[in-house]
Each structure stands twice: as structure tokens, then as C-alpha cells.
Design brief:
This protein is about 70% helix and about 0% strand. With about 100 residues, it is mostly helical.
């Protein structure tokens, strides 16, 4: 189950990275069209390359985070956590308003 969550999170990270790369390419084209000299065109390409590289770094960081989160959850399995009793020794665990007939 945790691996499925990690895979879904990685797909999301890849989609976000792809979107950022697409935005960078579109912005570069727009800036090249409005550039008045070759230097401005070169700067537009440099900015695009930096944004694409950053998007890739962000994707890898997200993948590493997702893998670490999955590993942490896997390591935490087997521990028993109790919640919701509030220290009431008469709590039945059926929730409020529940009736149980034998």
C-alpha cells in the first residue's frame, strides 16, 4: 500500500516537473520573439536551461522524499497506537451511539 502511495506521489512529481519544463520552453520562445538582440536571445535560453535543471532537481528531491517517507512508514509498521479512548475504562470501542446486541 505504501509503495502505491509512493508511486502516485512520484507520478505527481514527474507531472509537475514536466509542466515546469514546458512553461520554461514557452517562456523562452516568448522572450526570443521579443528579444532585440542576440544577447537577449542567449539569456532567454540560459534562463530556460536553469529552470529545466531546477525542475529536474525538484523532481529528484520529491522522489527521494517519497522514498524516505515510504521507508519510514514501513519501519513504523508493527507498532501499536491507541487513540480515542480518553482514558475511559468503560469504553467499548464501538463509538458513540452504537448499540451492540448479543
Amino acid at each position: 500500500m505504501e509503495k502505491t502511495k509512493e508511486t502516485a506521489a512520484n507520478i505527481g512529481a514527474s507531472a509537475k516537473s514536466g509542466l515546469e519544463k514546458t512553461k520554461a520552453n514557452v517562456q523562452e520562445k516568448t522572450e526570443k520573439l521579443t528579444a532585440h538582440n542576440p544577447m537577449e536571445k542567449k539569456l532567454a535560453t540560459q534562463k530556460k536551461n536553469e529552470r529545466v535543471a531546477q525542475a529536474e532537481l525538484d523532481k529528484q528531491a520529491a522522489r527521494n522524499h517519497n522514498a524516505a517517507a515510504t521507508a519510514g512508514n514501513t519501519l513504523g509498521q508493527g507498532r501499536h497506537h491507541t487513540t480515542g479512548t480518553g482514558g475511559n475504562p468503560n469504553a467499548t470501542g464501538h463509538g458513540t451511539g452504537a448499540t451492540h446486541h448479543h
